Automatic annotation (TrEMBL):
<dbReference type="Pfam" id="PF01933">
    <property type="entry name" value="CofD"/>
</dbReference>
<keyword id="KW-0963">Cytoplasm</keyword>
<protein>
    <recommendedName>
        <fullName>Putative gluconeogenesis factor</fullName>
    </recommendedName>
</protein>
<comment type="function">
    <text>Required for morphogenesis under gluconeogenic growth conditions.</text>
</comment>
<dbReference type="InterPro" id="IPR010119">
    <property type="entry name" value="Gluconeogen_factor"/>
</dbReference>
<dbReference type="GO" id="GO:0005737">
    <property type="term" value="C:cytoplasm"/>
</dbReference>
<comment type="similarity">
    <text>Belongs to the gluconeogenesis factor family.</text>
</comment>
<dbReference type="GO" id="GO:0043743">
    <property type="term" value="F:LPPG:FO 2-phospho-L-lactate transferase activity"/>
</dbReference>
<dbReference type="InterPro" id="IPR038136">
    <property type="entry name" value="CofD-like_dom_sf"/>
</dbReference>
<dbReference type="InterPro" id="IPR002882">
    <property type="entry name" value="CofD"/>
</dbReference>
<dbReference type="GO" id="GO:0008360">
    <property type="term" value="P:regulation of cell shape"/>
</dbReference>
Amino acid sequence: MTTFFDAPNGTPEEAPLERPRVITSLGGGHGLFQTLRAAQICSPTTINAVVTVADDGGSSGRIRRELGQIPPGDLRMALAALIADAEEGGLWENLLQHRFGGHGALAGHALGNLVIVALTDILGTSQHALDQIAQLAGAKGRIIPVCAEPLDLEAEVSGLDSDARVMRQVRGQVAVAATPGQVRRVRIIPDNPEPNPAAIEAILDADLVTLGPGSWFSSVIPHILVPGIVDALAQTKATKTVVLNLTSEPGETAGFSAERHIHVLRQHARNLQVDQVIVDAKTLSSQTERNHVERAARTLGAEVSFHDVQAEDGRGRFTSIHDPAKLCAALLASFAGARKR
């Protein structure tokens, strides 16, 4: 069954909606940033961000290699997303996101990454460090690394040889995201990491759990490759909602349809069951395509709802990112729809 919420202002045309008290969002990078901004608008009492730790590029990659800590970049972005919109919050966001220029040892490092690393050294764990920074900065939620150890990403990629059937192993999040071939499957190393107990608790205690949007193979799927996270998703009584990307991404998901995004989730976690899949109504207007997506979603036990969730630029043109206010409306609608099932 499909539910349509296409009101022009992004507000569902069914109301009033029950609001989730605890929202736990799984992801990383810019996709998680937008989801967390949407979660704030939904006004829950608690927001948890469970963040991937597989990044190996840029400042995060240097910190992994030189200090052996989990990559802080996605954690920093999630912190920035949850900082209050007040003037002081804006200053903290700018401070955490500030990136050093020049050509010296600090060039390319984000200040927030270094703050997380320093406090981890002082307090002993990255979780303690993130909790302390969140408190100091007035963040409206908790940032939780999915694991306390850095993870590596390895992909099976086709199309790197003249024979398209030949599979090559590509290792590293940056290499996977930028591959000119087509990613078929990914795995994490180690393949059975210990999940952060705080991440398990955040999933079990949630009323609404979100997965996606974001880089599908490098920010979204790594979560469902951690066995303890999959178990928690199976046990939680929360409404579980997958938010699909608006478009495929160059490199790892080039040419992927919305339907294929869902099939790839299923491929990597056969026992994964979710309640709702949110799809942008404008990017999937064909009824045939919608039927295919609905059929794919049923393999996850999910219903599909189509919403206007695209952000617009200052000239009224649609962008490739989710609008937080529209996404909040979609999340509330899907939450209410799942509760009625």
